[in-house]
Amino acid sequence: MRRTSPIVLLVLALAGGAAGFLLDHALTTAGRATFTPAVALPIFLVLLAIAVLAFAWPIRRSTHALPRRRVDPFRAVRIAMLARASSLLGAVITGFGVGLGAYLLSRPIAPPLGSLTAVLATAAAALVLTIAAIVAESFCLLPGGGGPHDPDDPHGPHLEDDDDDHSRAAAGTGH
Question: InterPro entries in the record, alphabetically (predicted)?
């Protein structure tokens, strides 16, 4: 399993930012009020960040304890996938909130303080979720990497697949 790429997170944040900016622009062009996230959204995002870290912490504790305890690999993969999904969601919502804020600040009229506060709180909470999810994902990885036989490890040693030639040569000499 590979870690979540920072480039993917950046692309998602940029896409979310463009979507937020364009949504507010479309609403304003149609004569409607700009979009303001609910006050509960930042609270739920922070609670999700705490939950993801809480789920991943026992795995980290088990893999980093001196006498290593057995970790259920299915549970570790599920939590790693939850962390990955949370980091992707956090990146999109961070970008979306920044896009909404950029549109509000680009207008000639000063935005209402409540709208700007809700947008900035949402972007900040989503950034907290993204960071917490990346940390939680790292908790689900074994310390020291996957070793030389891990095909997903780009920095590990890569062995040539020349064992077939040697095994045939050794098998051919014995018969």
Answer: DUF3180
3-state DSSP assignment of residue 154: coil
Q: Where are the domains of the chain?
A: 6-174
Q: Give CA–CA dist 63/143, Å, rounded.
A: 7
Contact 49, 128 (CB under 8 A): yes
* DSSP codes, 6-47: HHHHHHHHHHHHHHHHHHHHHHHHTTPPPP---THHHHHHHH
pLDDT tens, residue by residue, 109-150: 888 888 899 999 999 999 999 999 999 999 887 666 544 444
**pTM listed for this prediction:** 0.78
